[in-house]
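Give me structure tokens for this 218-residue protein.
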Amino acid sequence: MLLEIRAVPPFEKNGFVLGCERTREAVLIDPGDEVQALLDVVSANDLDVKHILLTHGHVDHVSGVAAATRALGAPVYLHSGDLQLYQNAVQFGQFFGLTVEQPPPVDVFYDRGHERVTFGDLEVRVLHTPGHCPGGVCLQVGPAGSVGTQLFVGDTLFAGSIGRTDLPGGDYPTLMRSIRQVLLPLGDDAVVYPGHGPKTTIGHERRTNSFLKDERLY
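Here you go.
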């Protein structure tokens, strides 16, 4: 699997290009302000982007969706629980003093029969992980027909931390349940690619992440 990560100021939010090396089919995950860098990766590797996959609807994860769809013509996927956040991206951008282009309408909702998405020889399994926001999802990627070990978790889990829950729709107990009941069972060897910061593994976070040490939270 081809995997490229890009991030730019002010949010330093990770955007991803995943490609099938055999077929050159690909997906974009969370195109934000780094969207042009992601599009450059697509062009340089002669990729055919089939889907634009969003882990959630916060402005830093969707600010580049309009540019991505204009360049690629690929459908946009989101969980319906975050539709309001997604539709209000312009207003949220203004709150941070930023000008954000209104994202286009969502084409496909994961929770309406689209929990699996394929591109080339690869498959994405969509796991609902609310708590940071109502419609947050994690994308589990691997060879089609197998259980993937590459996790694109949005702002659910970070290296040494967890997603904030003080924004509209956030809920700390819900987030902790999502991590404990959905992510940790995926196995210690699973590689975690957060929406911000470096990659980690489930095992490393299980052993060292202070937020996961108090069993009373679960």
